[in-house]
């Protein structure tokens, strides 16, 4: 294991958390979108995180198993149905006069946002720590 | 009198182990949101004991050739510690978790900061020892 | 002088051995054996220094390729530096001693 591997690990987490932030933002932005692509109400999106091995740059054997980074293996749409509101004058009202709103709960989206943000910060700190370590290692030569 | 003595060897090995631990901790931080992920850690004290225990002796005098951490499958004939013998242990879960992920982010960040600090200290010590040698050998110049 | 290239310890205890060889080599027959031993010790030492330099080179190359271990490289370079300086000091001392002896005259 070396410095580059650790950087790849933290870097993968930064990308994954950024995706999570993007999805949470998208969900929040579309909390009231009653007509999304395909004419249906907007369905909130969730990232699925999965661990993945981070290989060393030149595939050389490393000490121990190569550490686990993370990636978004897929983005799934939440199939649950949003709340229905009775509003016959709404352009998207169905035959009964109900409008189906997206299944987005702004509070939980904000919690997701904050959690992803915290994880992003933690990984950014990890990168910074690694940089400091490398600098100290180089200081051995004078 | 040896110039590159056992203490320098110990410092070198401690640097290697600290780097491995940094990688493992970075992997924990990266996977803070991955379901079912179980964090790992390197038992530093146990690893250093194993390395010193495996140090070869030459007529009762401990050799300064402390074994290096071996890459998986490699064997430099130096009596290295095999990667599989590195005590990389599972961190015991603090409490229940709803998605199987037991990473304690705060504890991990603290451990990472401590690890980086110790790495810096070892690096500084090794650098200073070598600087002293250089000073002596250069007869007080350079 | 014996330099272990694995962890590069310069064992100056061997200097004592060489010293003893020197003193017991007062008989004519032993003179040749003394020179041979000293020469081979010196040769071995130079070989070990060379190994240290090569090790430092290998580390530097792997860092240049981006896959190297930073502190290993730094340590290898420092050790090669110290060993080479020591070798230069010893060499200078030997040359100085030789000149001194030559100047003694007949």
Notes on the structure:
The complex is a heterotrimer of chains A (142), B (142) and C (106). Chain A contains 2 helices and 4 strands. Chain A has helices at residues 3-29, 106-138; strands at 45-53, 68-77, 84-86, 98-100. In chain A, the strands form 2 sheets. A two-stranded antiparallel ribbon of chain A has the order 1-2. In chain A, helix 1 packs antiparallel against helix 2. Chain B has helices at 6-30, 44-53, 105-137; strands spanning 40-42, 57-58, 61-62, 88-90. In chain B, a hairpin with a 2-residue loop joins strand 2 (57-58) and strand 3 (61-62). In chain B, helix 1 packs antiparallel against helix 3. The longest helix of chain B is centred in the last third of the chain and has 33 residues, at 105-137. The two termini of chain C are 31 Å apart. In chain C, helix 1 (13-24) packs antiparallel against helix 2 (28-64) and helix 2 runs antiparallel to helix 3. The chains are: A alpha+beta (142), B mainly alpha (142), C mainly alpha (106). Chains in contact: A-B, A-C, B-C. At the A-B interface, helix 1, strand 1, strand 2 and helix 2 of A face helix 1 and helix 3 of B.
User: What is the average of the pLDDT values of chain A?
Assistant: 88
Task: Compute the average pLDDT of chain B.
Answer: 76
What Rg of chain B, in angstroms, do the CA atoms define?
19 Å
Strand count of chain A: 4
Q: Which class do the helix and strand fractions of chain B yield? A: mainly alpha
Could you name the ranges of chain B where pLDDT drops below 50 across 5 or more consecutive residues?
57-64, 70-80
Helicity of chain A, as a percent range: 40-55%
C-alpha termini separation of chain A? 25 Å
- Into which percentage range does the β-strand content of chain B fall? 5-15%
Reading the helices and strands of chain A in chain order gives HEEEEH
Q: What is the oligomer described by this structure?
A: heterotrimer
Largest interface: A-B, 43 and 41 residues
- Which structural category fits the helices and strands of chain A? alpha+beta
Number of strands of chain B: 4
Strand content of chain A: 15-25%
* Total helical segments of chain B: 3
Gap between N and C termini of chain B: 23 Å
Count structural domains of chain A.
Answer: 1
Biggest sheet character of chain A:
2 strands, antiparallel
Radius of gyration of chain A: 22 Å
